[in-house]
From TrEMBL, chain A:
Domain named ABC transporter: residues: 6-234
KW Ligase (keyword) present: no
The keyword Nucleus is annotated on this UniProt entry: no
Pfam families: ABC_tran
Species this chain originates from: Peribacillus simplex
Descriptive protein name: ABC transporter ATP-binding protein
Family per similarity comment: Belongs to the ABC transporter superfamily.
Lineage top rank: taxon: Bacteria
Keyword terms: ATP-binding, Nucleotide-binding, Transport
Molecular function GO labels: ATP binding; ATP hydrolysis activity
Automatic annotation (TrEMBL), chain C:
Membrane-spanning intervals of the chain: 18-37, 152-178, 223-242, 249-269, 298-320
GO CC terms: plasma membrane
GO MF annotation terms: ABC-type transporter activity
Keyword set includes Iron: no
PANTHER family membership: BACITRACIN TRANSPORT PERMEASE PROTEIN BCRB, INTEGRAL MEMBRANE PROTEIN-RELATED
Entry keyword Cell cycle: no
Protein name: ABC transporter permease
Name of a matching Pfam family: ABC2_membrane_2
Alphabetically ordered keywords of this record: Membrane, Transmembrane, Transmembrane helix
């Protein structure tokens, strides 16, 4: 049994009369990358800020490595590193001084550890330059470096790839996986991009309107939600045949069905036998919007 | 020290000490203010008159009332300023000038003023002393003349002459070589008065004043009555009491020639 | 705690605010030095001598003539009478109230800077102490460390106290060093009169005594420091309450300027003496100038300031430790 690094129970936040977080429960295990998926305004950021102690929950509990964030704030924070939104560092200080600044706020961090994290994120060459001269990617890396200073068991990253170029995104992804797999760290990642979560995370929670709608592994979540786009001719006949196997929807010249690894070849064979020509079979991930519509049963839309 | 930057640390420590020091100063200031202080509580004595620091310079001291001040002259010079200008252009050197005139001053107040140590010191250094006094004693802002109270005038004239003696004596006590020029009064009400009563009063006042002045050998009485007699309105300021620029010019033209730089033996 | 204070100090120094403040002070001191120099020169021109006694006598005569004007407000007349009596006292006791030299210049500069200039300098540092972390977003990093919030705010406040001390010291030092170029570096031992007690327009001289100028200067500095700390603490509170630095600065600036204006007109509004900004001119009590409202004393002003100070601290810490950070 793996150790639980983060446990959230019935977390609620009310501002005035509006309840913006309506009771959230989840757990994070050691070495796991957990995705927090939801559109902007779903309550991701508020939840994350409650986890790191910036916002006080109205009710519910948060335990990091067994320490209650409200009762044992300093002990809980010692186990955690985080970047909330953009890595906002002091632009007028050098990268090294920024690290020094945060190192001084932690127990038992010395210059050797600082050198280690600088090497980890590969900033050795520019570490003594002022942060205002850094590119966004470098700032992101410096942000990771400061979050890693205390060798945390839990790393919380809010939109870690925001503003990065494709190369930077890939780099970040590999880096996060490395941390989880090699160092056994739990990572909580929030994002509004499904693709990102899909490639990065072991498990995903979908959050909307302040509630977790669904928590599942990425595979099972996606496999139920993946779609195949068929372009067939004649389309009427193709639709008839396919609808005999499964539910279909028509979208202009495409027929859309669910994806099923085992059944799809059979459907295809059936089409061929009936003389329907298959021009295109496209397996597509649903967009977040579609996923939402599906998960929430449609109608709810995105705020 | 663990993870320190020496420069930052040094400034931190230094400013901490400065802060503590200021806190101490604050406590000291409050204690001292409420009399438990460390500062010397010596009774400060009146000091003797200081020696003049510039004995070689030609020094003019002007004392008296608003005429000395120059009220009515929009350039602010008054006759004193004009006299100094004349001296400057004539001798090509600038005299030191102390203008101590106070608006509305009466003779009794002037007696007090010339007894002040600093005024005494300046008088001591003076080569020429210009005095205008008595106008406020006599006219009292026009009241005396409208009431024609002969008795009141006699009383104030008597006290004025007494004060004049005091002033001259006090001046001579510290400086008996300076030339004292006392300006007589003119009659600003000459046009308002058909019976020439005010003329008689002012003339009488001037005569008595001149008598007193005559008793002091270094003092000169400078009449101004005649200057304003014929066309008083042309030379008066809009308040119909003080001279205007032209009036001051007249007075200065009379006073300046009396001052002889070389004559003074000091 | 030591580490936290060093952090704040490092940020403060890296922002170069103190250097800017130093430059502002330097430029102002040079300007005032020149103005003072011009004034001395003009006086010499007018009197034909640079004898201070003659100049002081002339000032007395001028004041007397101004008092003679009947268009004057009563409270101004009172203040003039007080200063007249003091000038006469200085003259009678042969003490030069403005003994030439850098020490005198520094004393006078501090006395004139205490209620507006120095508070403005302090504001530059204090008003973005917390709000800049808010606007940069670094507050999120700061508050997710294993350090309690009150400790973080305390470290910032301690740093504020330290920088206030630096600013006051630098102001005094610069005005001494720069004005000395023109006036010479003497004047430490010159006698200064303190202990005038004001009762309306009357001056009680029974407590009057002489203090050497260096002692007087140190007392002035202590009072200036208190004012700077109080104003700094109030700006600090605004910096906690208001997220934008310019807004906090604006509020504080409005308060200070209204104080400067009120000082000239509140004499009939007695409860105005509980405003902090009316109580800033502490040095006036030891040099013996009439306070803006009758009945104000050094002690009452200090207590008023300390009450404001304590309230500002309580508000700052309560709000900072409880607030949700978005």
């Amino acid at each position: 049994m793996k150790q639980v690094t983060l446990s959230v129970r019935d977390l609620k936040k009310r501002i005035g009369k509006r309840e913006i977080i309506k009771g959230i429960d989840f757990e994070l295990n050691e070495g796991e990358v957990f995705g927090f998926l939801g559109p902007n305004g779903a309550g991701k950021t508020t939840t994350i800020r409650m986890l790191v102690g910036l916002i006080k929950p109205t009710s519910g509990s948060i335990h990091i490595c067994g320490y209650d964030v409200r009762q044992d704030f300093t002990k809980a924070m010692k186990q955690m590193g985080c970047i909330v939104e953009n890595p906002e560092l002091y632009p007028f200080l050098s990268g090294w001084d920024n690290l020094l600044h945060f190192a001084r706020m932690l127990p038992d961090v010395d210059e050797t550890r600082m050198d280690e994290v600088v090497e980890l994120v590969g900033l050795q060459a520019r570490i003594h330059d002022k942060v205002k001269t850094y590119s966004l990617g470098m700032r992101q890396r410096l942000g990771i470096a400061q979050a890693m200073l205390n060798s945390p068991k839990l790393l919380i990253l809010d939109e870690p790839t925001n503003g990065l170029d494709p190369a930077g995104i890939r780099e970040m992804r590999q880096f996060i996986r490395k941390l989880a797999e090699e160092e056994g760290m739990s990572v909580l990642v929030s994002s509004h991009l499904l693709g990102e979560i899909q490639q990065l995370c072991d498990r995903v929670a979908i959050i909307k309107g302040g509630e977790i709608i669904k928590t599942d592994t990425v595979e099972s979540l996606l496999s139920t939600q993946e779609r195949i786009f068929w372009r067939v001719e004649p389309i009427q006949k193709g639709a008839e045949i396919l609808s005999s196997f499964t539910e279909i929807t028509l979208d202009q010249k495409y027929i859309i069905t669910a994806y099923d690894e085992l059944k799809t070849p059979e459907w295809n064979a059936a089409l061929n036998q009936a003389g329907v020509r298959v021009h295109e079979m496209n397996r597509k991930l649903p967009g977040l919007e579609e996923l939402f519509l599906q998960v929430t049963g449609g109608g709810a839309g995105i705020e | 020290m663990f993870l320190s930057k020496p420069k930052v640390l040094a400034i931190t420590i230094a400013s901490a000490f400065i802060g503590l020091f200021f806190l101490f100063c604050l406590g000291w200031a409050i204690m001292d203010h409420y009399g438990k202080g460390t500062s010397d509580k010596e009774v400060i004595e009146e000091t003797a008159i200081k020696k003049n620091d510039f004995p070689d310079d030609f020094t003019v001291v002007a004392i008296g009332d608003s005429l000395t001040r120059g009220t009515g002259d929009e350039t602010g010079k008054g006759y004193v300023g004009l006299v100094i200008e004349d001296l400057k252009s004539e001798y090509n050197r600038k005299p030191i000038i102390h203008n101590l005139g106070i608006n509305g001053q009466v003779s009794k107040e002037l007696v007090q003023q010339v007894r002040q140590p600093e005024v005494k010191r300046q008088i001591q250094a003076a080569d020429v002393i210009l005095v205008t006094i008595g106008g406020n004693d006599l006219f009292q802002k026009g009241r005396t003349l409208l009431e024609y109270d002969r008795e009141a005038i006699t009383v104030s004239q008597k006290s004025f002459l007494g004060n004049l003696h005091e002033i001259f004596k006090d001046i001579n006590k510290v400086n008996d070589t300076a030339t004292i020029l006392l300006l007589g009064l003119y009659n600003p009400f000459i046009d308002l008065d058909e019976d020439f009563d005010t003329n008689r009063i002012v003339r009488d006042w001037n005569n008595e004043t001149a008598e007193v002045v005559a008793l002091y050998e270094n003092a000169i009485f400078v009449p101004t009555f005649d200057l304003f007699q014929l066309s008083v309105n042309e030379y008066l300021y809009s308040d119909k009491f003080h001279p205007n620029k032209k009036g001051y010019r007249l007075i200065a033209d009379r006073v300046a020639p009396l001052i002889k730089w070389e004559d003074v033996e000091r | 705690m030591n580490n936290l204070v060093q952090n704040e100090m490092m940020k403060l120094l890296a922002k170069k605010r103190l250097i800017i403040i130093g430059l502002i002070v330097g430029i102002l001191v040079l300007m005032f030095t020149y103005a003072q120099y011009k004034q001395v020169e003009e006086q010499r021109e007018k009197l034909g001598t640079d004898d201070w006694r003659a100049a002081l006598q002339q000032q007395i005569i001028d004041t007397q003539n101004r008092l003679g004007s009947n268009r004057m407000l009563d409270e101004w007349r009172e203040q003039l009478q007080v200063s007249l009596k003091q000038q006469q006292y200085y003259l009678d006791h042969d003490i030069n109230p403005s003994e030439p030299g850098a020490a005198t210049f520094t004393r006078m500069f501090l006395e004139n800077a205490i209620d507006l200039f120095i508070p403005l300098l302090i504001m530059i540092v204090a008003s973005d102490m917390v709000s800049s972390e808010n606007s940069q977003g670094t507050i999120k990093l700061l508050l997710t460390r294993p350090v309690e919030r009150w400790k973080i705010l305390l470290s910032k406040y301690v740093t504020l106290l330290l920088s206030v001390s630096i600013i006051v010291a630098v102001t005094a030092l610069l005005s001494y060093l720069l004005s000395g170029i023109v006036f010479g570096y003497q004047g430490w031992g010159a006698p200064v009169i303190t202990g005038f007690e004001l009762k309306g327009a009357d001056v009680d001289v029974s407590q009057v005594r002489l203090v050497e100028q260096w002692k007087f200067l140190l007392m002035d500095l202590g009072l200036v420091w208190l004012v700077a700390v109080v104003v700094g603490t109030l700006s600090f509170m605004l910096s906690v309450l208001v997220r934008s630095t310019p807004a906090g600065m604006g509020i504080m600036l409005a308060a200070l300027i209204s104080g400067a204006i009120l000082n000239n007109m509140v004499s009939s509004w007695e409860s105005a003496k509980y405003f902090f900004m009316v109580n800033l001119k502490l040095t006036a009590y030891i040099s013996g100038t009439a306070p803006p409202i009758e009945g104000m004393t050094l002690l009452s002003s200090v207590i008023t300031l300390l009450v404001w100070w304590a309230l500002a601290l309580i508000v700052s810490f309560t709000v900072f430790t409880r607030r949700d950070v978005y």
